[in-house]
TrEMBL record:
Cellular component terms (Gene Ontology): plasma membrane
Residue intervals passing through the bilayer: 135-158
Reaction catalyzed: ATP + protein L-histidine = ADP + protein N-phospho-L-histidine
GO function terms (MF aspect): phosphorelay sensor kinase activity
Pfam families: HAMP, HATPase_c, HisKA
Known EC number: 2.7.13.3
Residue stretches making up the HAMP domain: 159-212
Name of the protein: histidine kinase
SMART domains reported in the protein's UniProt record: HAMP, HATPase_c, HisKA
Keyword annotations of the record: Kinase, Membrane, Phosphoprotein, Transferase, Transmembrane, Transmembrane helix, Two-component regulatory system
Amino acid sequence: MLLLVLLQNALTVATDDMLRSKTTDVAEVLSSGEMAEAGQNISSAEGQGLLIQILDGSGRVVQASDPELLKTPMGSLRPNPGESMAKEVSFLVGVTGDSDGEFYLVATGATSGTDTYVVLAARSIQVQADTVRTVALFLLLATPALLLIVGMAVRFLVGRSLRQVEITRAQVADIDAGHLADRVDVPPTNDELAALAVTMNAMLGRIETADTHQRQFVSHASHELRSPLTTLRTGLEVSAQDPTHRTWLDMAPLLVAETRRMGYLVEDLLTLSKAEDNGLQILRADVDLDDVLADELRRLRSTTGHEVRSRLEPVRVSGDARRLSQVLRNVLDNAGRHAEHTVRVTLTADDGTARLWIDNDGPPVPEAERERIFERFVRLDESRSRDTGGSGLGLVIARSLLAAHDGAIIAGEASDGFCRFEIRLPLLGSR
């Protein structure tokens, strides 16, 4: 319906513009006093399908594009000079024969000296009406067929898309915990469905990686707990068979040590779990990092036979003193376990960053292992770490706690070949 209205309006506007232009041209010729020239002007309009009359002030036809039009004015429109009027009419007075039908009539007032005239111009709009009716009939007949074709095309395209969605859904539904390595097929259509399949495979890859890490975590944790539990069980069984209880007295220190080791491991596992789930509570305050480090160095000197050297500058940071102390203890204990003779600690500050170097004269971490060393339960020297009580979680916890403080820890090598761990923290007020 809107299309028909727009078409009708466009045809009407085109006819109106043409007739107004013609009557205006004739009126301008009349205003110059050239009646003969005006007659020639309207005579040339016959080939354009136009009917034109010039009426004098009394309403008499003085010039016409066709001799038959000299008898009677075509219409009753009488605009003032310089004005125009338009009207659709069902017939024209005095017009017969092939020109019968609907017409569009335009009248423009004109003057020539003291005389007034009216220029009438008309054109049949029967063809225009027939065109609109033809288009309407075409739309009436073609629209249902077009809608049917579009509907079938939409059904086909949507059906094909939904089939691929169903295939992807079925493949995902078949992937269970025992088949996380499976992936869905990516259609060769290079469209949104293909992108969905690629995204789904990426998600399945992340799930598989997380599941693998979880299984490794459980396996490693079980392995770590098995050793102290086996020692406890064996010690208790042996002690229970000794009626004199002397074995119990001999085994007690070992059993207490294994209990502590198991407690430390459980505490480390809990801390790591909270850190990875963003569940650690960081109570920030102004912390004198050099004082916290000095306390941990005193503890290290009392628990190790190595030489511990230190050079500390006053450094203040914003953080949780208890958690930062845990970081320093883990890294210092790691240095103490792997040192041959010497542990060297340097604390300084520059460019808004606190820098702490913890070096030991043991072998440096191989370059290829400097990222893996911060993974859970990783020991580069397995037997040695177990003998010295390392759980393989200290450095992981240190990195997680430092990340919660906007800091970092890096494994490297000092210029003199010492094994180095560098800790960086933003200074107080630098952020």
